[in-house]
Specification:
Layout: H1 2-18, E1 25-36, E2 42-64, E3 77-85, E4 88-89, E5 91-92, E6 103-109, E7 112-135, E8 139-140, E9 145-152, E10 159-168, E11 179-183, E12 189-193, E13 196-204, E14 210-216, H2 233-250, H3 258-281, H4 301-309, H5 316-327, E15 330-336, E16 342-348, H6 358-368, E17 372-375, E18 378-382, H7 383-392, H8 396-413, H9 421-446, H10 452-471, H11 475-498, H12 505-519, H13 526-543, H14 558-570, H15 575-587, H16 594-601, H17 605-617, E19 658-659
Parallel strand pairs: 1-10, 5-6
Antiparallel strand pairs: 1-2, 2-7, 3-4, 3-7, 6-7, 8-9, 9-14, 10-13, 11-14, 11-19, 12-13, 15-16, 16-18, 17-18
């Protein structure tokens, strides 16, 4: 097996070495000088400062002229005027091979032009200039002229550190108002003087487009032939101003963007959660034990079971009855009923001298209510008949039994402490404030449709909390919430993302989780958690008993053996462990007291005893159980439970966030 792993590792390494390497390009400075001519054409000079950390043969530059969003703003054609590398003019050729230098090939199509530059270089900077003319870029309308162009298309696969776009309009444009709008980054800026405009953007990511819409006097391009007989100035300004308002609305806190606000709020919520844990939920350490050989503090097994699991199990009544049998309050006797079936009957001992606790008195009262008088002050009942009667009973006595056990435990150890009500109230207000904040943000950028945000988020929070408060962590409820609430969450996330404020969902979700955590805080007393550790050690000891070399004379101690026998059932140990004690008891039959002899002598005691009491408890608690055959597992008890954005391909813009 080891040789196989070595071969696989060597094979993967060999594959990695055989993979082709790709050059990493970076662009430090990218300057575009664009000049709009009086006929609507635009002369462009791109100056690009490239760097690569590997050896490359050259560069390829695709210049697209089609606007995939609006063909009105596409160019009619492109003319390449020259290519320069480090100030040297390169020559156009029809064909070139790898390794050549000082030449380029150029091909055109209806979508634009493609320039392949042959200029080998490695681990160095190259400054490349492309000079070209775009035909009929500017559009004339009845009330304005428009230049709407993707200067950096989304096809760029390398980062650009600094981008400067210098746009010169015809001098006549300076006589009237010029409107400038940029798209592609939250942090783009521009300056404008007379008929000259400069747009600056930094740290452009791969595939991030940058474009601009400029509205100016139609008199500036008197020779322009791309004419549309309609008035658009008012609509375009309203549209762009609205998108600018959207961007400003997203800078909601001290000039921060939505993503930054989300990050700050998320950190604050996490800090609050950590603080609440430290002050209200963090528990003192208790002593860890590997094995524990005694019943902790002499507590009865039904109480220890409740402390261990943190709830009353459905077989607690059965465990309690076994304990009462051990104590001599009841005994079991083999018998044959009227139809000849071998069974057992349970007999009450009125002369016992045991001081009963309240929950034990409740058990005796409940069971004695089903017993039949045989005369001579003997009360008993066949277990089969008892099972039928208990199944038909309302179980009121069992519910009171549960309350008595809970009261017994709380009387000994106290109740778990919870987060103060003021903290819960604060968390609820925080959640409401978060929903209100997201709603106001949605209204700012999305209009009246954002009013559905509080409806969705409030409904999700309310229903989720109600379900968990009433039914706990039942699996069917979990599945329902995952599916049903997931649909609502998916819808609200899609809505927030469509508004450009999807990041705000993260602090909302963290706030919601925080309030659920606070509501469920249960800090158990140190004494109780120490008992749980002792019970874990006892459970471990009983489970491993048959494998231990030194048994400390335990088997000679009948009373302690009986305790182990009952605790193995109470703590849900598997058949193998319980049967070990059963087999030992069978061998040592003559040494057993009357209280346990019948239990051990009857091989199917779990069906004879546990079934009636399980029938009695059935339907009154959520947890499963009812016999000694529960699988071995761990304890469930715990301490607590104006900028640039967007982009498109070269040739035009789209519905993206704006800066102006």
């Amino acid at each position: 097996m080891r040789k196989l792993r070595i071969v696989c590792i060597l094979f993967v390494i060999a594959i990695l070495f055989c993979l082709p390497s790709f050059a990493t390009f970076e662009i430090g400075n990218f300057t575009i000088d664009a000049k709009v001519l009086s006929n609507g054409d635009m002369e462009v000079k791109e100056t690009i400062n490239y760097y690569t950390d590997e050896t490359v043969n050259g560069l390829t530059r695709d210049i697209e002229i089609k606007n995939q969003y609006n063909t009105t703003n596409s160019a009619d054609g492109i003319t390449l005027q020259g290519v320069y590398v480090d100030g040297e003019a390169y020559q156009s050729v029809g064909y070139a091979e790898k390794g050549e230098s000082g030449v380029y090939t150029y091909y055109t199509s209806s979508d634009g032009g493609s320039i392949t530059l042959y200029s080998p270089f490695a681990n160095e900077y190259k400054t490349v200039e492309y000079h070209y003319l775009l035909e009929n870029v500017a559009v004339k309308y009845n009330d304005t002229a428009e230049l709407f162009w993707n200067f950096i298309g989304s096809e760029w696969d390398c980062s650009i550190k600094n981008l400067a776009i210098n746009i010169t309009l015809p001098e006549a444009a300076a006589a009237e108002t010029i409107w400038v709008y940029g798209h592609g980054s939250d942090y783009g800026t521009f300056t404008k003087s007379e008929n000259f405009i400069t747009l600056n953007v930094s740290n452009i990511s791969p595939y991030q487009a940058v474009d601009s819409r400029i509205l100016f006097s139609r008199n500036a391009i008197p020779e322009g032939t791309k004419v549309h007989s309609k008035s658009v100035l008012h609509d375009y300004i309203n549209h762009e101003e609205g998108m600018s308002k959207e961007l400003e609305a997203k800078k909601v806190l001290f000039g921060l963007s939505v993503k930054e606000v989300s990050f700050v709020l998320s950190l604050a919520i996490l800090a609050i959660g950590i603080g609440i844990y430290i002050f209200f939920d963090k528990e003192e350490r208790v002593e860890k034990v590997q094995y524990y050989r005694e019943l902790p503090y002499g507590l009865d097994p039904e109480v220890l079971q409740y402390i261990y699991y943190g709830k009353v199990k459905s077989n607690a009544f059965y465990v309690g009855m076994l304990n009462l049998i051990k104590l001599g309050v009841y005994k079991l006797e083999n018998t044959v009923n009227k139809v000849g079936k071998e069974t057992q009957k349970i007999i009450y001992n009125p002369n016992h001298n045991v001081v009963l606790k309240e929950y034990q008195k409740r058990m005796v009262t409940s069971v004695n209510g089903f017993l039949e008088d045989e005369g001579n002050d003997i009360k008993s009942i066949d277990l089969l008949k008892l099972s039928t009667k208990m199944e038909k009973s309302s179980g009121t006595g069992y519910r009171m039994f549960i309350k008595d056990i809970e009261a017994e435990k709380e009387g000994l150890l106290g109740k778990p402490s919870k987060a103060p009500k003021r903290i819960v109230f604060f968390a609820a207000l925080t959640l409401i404030a978060m929903i209100a904040f997201i709603t106001f943000m949605g209204i700012a950028v999305g209009g009246d449709e954002a009013f559905v945000i509080p409806m969705f988020l409030g409904f999700i929070s309310f229903i989720y909390s109600i379900f968990f408060a009433t039914v706990g962590n039942a699996l069917p409820v979990m599945l329902f919430l995952i599916f049903h609430m997931g649909c609502f969450h998916g819808g609200i996330i899609a809505m927030l993302v469509s508004m450009g404020i999807g990041w705000l969902y993260i602090p909302y979700l963290l706030t919601f989780i925080l309030i659920q955590y606070i509501i469920r805080i249960k800090k158990y007393p140190k004494e109780e958690r120490q008992i749980v550790e002792y019970i874990k050690g006892l459970k471990r000891y009983i489970s491993h008993y048959s494998m231990l070399d030194e048994k400390d004379g335990v088997m000679e101690n009948l009373a302690l053996w009986e305790d182990y026998f009952i605790m193995a059932i109470a703590l849900g140990l598997n058949n193998k462990t319980v049967n070990y004690f059963y087999d030992y008891g069978k061998v040592q039959h003559s040494n057993l007291g009357d209280s346990m002899r019948c239990v051990v002598s009857y091989r199917a005691f779990s069906y004879g005893i546990s079934t009636p009491f399980h029938n009695y408890s059935r339907g009154h608690i959520v947890s499963s159980g009812g016999s000694y055959s529960s699988s071995y597992g761990g304890s469930s008890h715990s301490g607590s439970s104006g900028g640039f954005s967007g982009g498109s391909s070269s040739g035009g813009g789209g519905g993206r966030r704006r800066w102006r």
